[in-house]
Here is the input.
Amino acid sequence: MELTKSEMEIMDVLWGADKPLSRADLLERSEEKTWKDSSVHILLNGLLQKGAIQEAGLVKRSKTYGRVFSPTMTREEYFATTIFSHRHKPEIVGLFAALLRREDITPEMLSEISALIAQKNV
Here is the structure.
């Protein structure tokens, strides 16, 4: 699944939220959006069709009810999936090595990664 720039902007808001959001919540929280408010319905339907979000219930706003949405995967899961969906897929060990060479990798992160690898080997 590949998301457009506008869809990614909506996903960023959803990933940053601590609860499912309504259309109105998305509009309130989308500070640097490149899309028009009237397009949010189309963008949400596209994200639903792609399986990036799901309906997570209804919420009452004024006199009407509206759907609320939540992501179906984390930001990290999305990017891990998209890396390998391209025609020119990276080799996993080489990709992992390149990530470990980053200067922002802390000893705490390395410990977490080591624990994940140990769990995977079980």
User: Anything to note?
Assistant: The mean pLDDT is 89. The CA atoms of residues 23 and 41 lie 8 Å apart.
